[in-house]
Amino acid sequence: ATRGVELDADDADGDTGDTYTGSREKRREDVALLTGRAEYTDDHEPPGTVSLAFVRSEHGHADLKEIDTSTAEAMDGVIGVYTWNDLEASPSPGRLPLSGLEGDIPAHPVLATDRVRYHGQPIAAVVAEDRYRARDGVAAVDVEYEPLEAVVDPQDAATDPNAPQLFAEAPDNVATSAELGDADATDRAFDAADRTVEIDLTNNRLIPSALEPRAAIAEFDPDEGFTVTMTSQSPHGHRRKLAHTLGVREGEIRVISPHVGGGFGHKGHHHPGEAMAAWCARDLDRPVKWTATRSENYLEGAHGRDHRTTAALAVDHDGSIRGLRAETYANVGGYGLGVGASMPARYGRLLASQYAIDAIRCETHTVFTNTAPIHSYRGAGRPEAIYVTERLVDVAADELGIDPVELRQRNLIPSGAFPYETPVGATYDSGDYEPAMERALEAIGYDDRRDRSGTTWDSSGEDVENGAIDDGRLRGVGIANYVESTGGGFESGLVRVLPDGDVEVYAGTHSHGQGHETTYAQLVADALSLPIERIHVSEGDTEAIPTGTGTFGSRSTIVGGNAVVTSAEKVLSKVRRIAAAELEVDPERVVYDGGAFTVSGTDGSEAATASARGDEVSFAAVAEAAYGRGLPDDLEPGLEATTFYELDGTAYTFGTHACIVAVDPATGDVELERYLAVDDCGERVNPTIVEGQVHGGVAQGIAQARYEQVAYDDDGTLLTDAMDSYGVPRAADLPQIETDATVTPSPLNELGVKGIGEAGTIAAPPAVVNAVCDALDVAHIDMPLTEERVWRAVSEERGDVN
Ligand code: MCN
């Protein structure tokens, strides 16, 4: 139920009607998902399957003195108990590769070696006939620890000389330090500007809460190798990483990823669970299943965000932004899993947001702490960056006495300036920021709301003094602009026309809720001018699909979409040549329309003959010809093409989100009275799916701003290890989300598309926090804006609390 989906009926929001692309085609995958027919990993149970469970560290930081597995080994139904010694004695390296970190820092061992570095780190693995006995076995393993002092805050870990050191190879716990932008130019910009505005902020640590936890079922055959059925956003990526950990060739592993019940980034990285299941399957010669519990997923299914940032903006009195500086400590957790180390590039490069800033300087330190490894959570670096800039702009507006919207408008990169290179090395391919902002301001009634900020007016917006009910709540309005970098890496797309004219599409991406089955079918149906019912889309099996990259970073539509369309075009050109042979004319004379080929013009002799015969060949007839009968001599049989598509650059999605809040000063309760998202992801393949993506992202962005916070105690014990302690919002906690769009096609790809999968998580946190700070007239409150924090901010502002 969405209020105001169609804010403007005559704009590009509507269904274009004449093509599948751009239309609001219903999601084809939903029937299976909603009727329970869709199969998830845990639904698979090959005969003889046994169950794997882990003994996990009870400490955030400890030396392992002794692991006594004897009781567990003797238990009825337990068929294997393993520790690092077993892995070490096997031919497998037993570590998760691709830490992405420089130097000699040891990669994450699948089972702890002699020390544990985070609460929940796997120490031993128990395999039993069923999952109950496996858990009983886990409970019977006796681990003797010698606890060590822990550190959980990344800034403390890097700057406190007394902080415990996680790795001798990483002095001050710093995994990597990186600098972006010109330091001297930034110093000059700060010196020249009229004033400097500063902020210290925390980007709160989050856990992706996909409905389906991580799971794997591994089978081993000495001749065929491994088949690992698992929850994966990147089946080929997992195959490669599993091969490293197991010490086998990639070709010896087949990864199958069936339906995946959400990922939000955490099913992209390599993990002890799947690797250990595969190792045990080989050792025991039995299919081994591992399905994480919710708490296990929370303990170590990989977390996201967790930055400490000091940032400053150099501004002139007229609101011109001259420079930006940021120094950030980004938490990596107990071991590097990849994204933590690439954080400087993902994060620092987005700090310009939508503004023409003379100079930017960003220093990022990725830091080990005694917490679960940080990998990616929807946005991974982009939400953290945009939050810094969009908060700073509001603080600057407040200090300068300029309206925050005016300050933004004054500094927008002008529409004629694209492609635009920022001082932190990002090249924005395209953009037209003003219209998106205007739409948001108009729809939300900005000027009127702004006049009432910090006052108590009722939700109808009526003037309190003119008789409307004053409900005593403080109103505020928040605006956030954003950019989102989308479309990295290559992707594969295979299009195969079967002899009866049906079309199979295979892509190396893997939908886990995004709706690729629908959107890829729309694209291919148009490229081949066929009814969409004839297009069948598959993802998620490394044996059936050309080597691909996967679904993350809002990349599937740009790279995967263009890959399948390019393959469809290659196929169509062959189809045309076969049709021409069938019609006995040159290929240039063949006209393709509505699934059938005819001959153009009536003047040429062949055309006249063909027309006189009333000739027309259907797509299906050509498809059949492609596999034998009537194939021109110079063509080989078959009708399929594969494309490995890579974008030359990065496509930048952008938009403006706006939010109106009502804050109860007595309780600190915040109500989001309106939330509006205006996004520009270029051409939209399916506006309904795009809006769904925005809804989901905004929900998670609001969750970060208001509810979610991973908490560790000082010893590194995870306090939020279940849904009753970790604040995932319920539907009733979220507002109606209004959506609108502008369309600025990306010049980098023929479809003109950009990604949309993470826009909501990027824009929503600053929009919400800006609105609440506006309502309370305070400079900053750290997320999540719990009732207590908001109440304290109100009370401090009013002088009630010391
Ligand atoms: N789309 C479109 N037109 C565009 C852009 C996108 O119609 N111009 C459609 C696509 O065709 C696709 C969907 O929107 O069906 C998302 O496309 P895209 O932006 O390319 O993103 P990806 O498919 O690569 O998805 C990745 C992104 C990320 S990084 C996370 S995290 C995320 C997200 O998508 N996790 C999700 N959305 C999620 N949605 C669900 N339901 N579950 C998750 O775990």
Commentary on this structure:
This protein is of the alpha+beta class. Among the domains are: 30-37 and 488-646, Aldehyde oxidase/xanthine dehydrogenase, molybdopterin binding domain (Aldehyde Oxidoreductase, domain 4, 2-Layer Sandwich), CATH 3.30.365; 42-149 and 208-300, Aldehyde oxidase/xanthine dehydrogenase, a/b hammerhead (Aldehyde Oxidoreductase, domain 3, Alpha-Beta Complex); 472-487 and 650-802, Aldehyde Oxidoreductase, domain 4 (2-Layer Sandwich). 29% of the residues lie in helices and 23% in strands. The strands form seven sheets. The chain has a seven-stranded mixed beta sheet, with helices on both faces. A five-stranded mixed beta sheet has the order 7-15-14-13-8, with helices on both faces. A four-stranded mixed beta sheet has the order 18-26-27-28, with helices on both faces. It is globular. The two termini are 44 Å apart. It binds pterin cytosine dinucleotide (MCN). The site of pterin cytosine dinucleotide has 35 residues, from helix 15, helix 16 and helix 19. Residues 210, 262-265, 378, 512-516, 519, 551-557, 681-686, 689-690, 693, 696, 753-758 line the site of pterin cytosine dinucleotide.
Task: Offer a concise description of the structure.
The chain has 802 residues and is an alpha+beta fold. The chain has a 7-stranded mixed β-sheet, sandwiched between helices. The protein has a 5-stranded mixed β-sheet with strand order 7-15-14-13-8, sandwiched between helices. Strands 18-26-27-28 form a 4-stranded mixed β-sheet, with helices on both faces. It has 21 helices and 28 strands.
